[in-house]
Write a structure and sequence with these properties.
Layout (H helix, E strand, L loop, with lengths): L1 H23 L4 E2 L3 E3 L3 E6 L2 E6 L4 H30 L7 H28 L5 E2 L1 H22 L5
Antiparallel strand pairs: 1-2, 1-5, 2-3, 3-4
């Protein structure tokens, strides 16, 4: 049982780390001379590296909000898991923990979808998606799978 709990916590923390890295690191869209993320657009012109704030459009703010909400809900889910681990009666399910983690996965999915759809009109065709964008999409199934595991999991002695 201890090995199962450690595996679940490792899965949860791995998804949370991916969410944090994908939200903070500046590599959602990359080019040879520029990088963009949810917060800044950085370019190199004539050897000078310059970062400007990201676009203030509604869609980028929606993506920012979705990614921040996914991180918050994932932290809350991890906290609830440890609380329920010690307070839940034998045979009880971790439904609240699972619900928060599934919501976190849905938030990151919505943020990724909005960014993918709206990115075509904002970013030139010569640029490609960066590793932070890919990490966000990898974090989605990790968070969803851990949420489903929490819902299925019953507390034993």
């Amino acid at each position: 049982m201890l090995l199962l709990l450690m595996g679940i916590v490792v899965l949860h923390v791995a998804g949370l780390v991916l969410l944090l890295v994908s939200t903070i690191v500046s590599a959602w869209v990359i080019n040879t001379n520029s990088r963009s993320d949810l917060w800044t657009n950085c370019t190199t012109v004539s050897g000078v590296y310059r970062c400007d704030p990201a676009d203030t459009g509604v869609w980028i703010q929606a993506v920012q909000a979705m990614m921040i909400l996914s991180i918050i809900f994932s932290f809350i889910s991890l906290f609830l898991f440890f609380c329920q681990l010690f307070t839940l009666k034998k045979g009880g399910r971790f439904l609240l923990t699972g619900a928060f983690q599934i919501l976190a996965s849905l938030f990151v999915m919505c943020g990724g979808i909005i960014y993918t759809v709206m990115n075509s009109g904002w970013v030139p065709a010569k640029e490609s998606y960066g590793f932070s964008f890919i990490l966000a999409w990898i974090a989605f199934p990790l968070a969803f799978i851990s949420g489903v595991v929490y819902v299925i999991l019953r507390k034993r002695e």
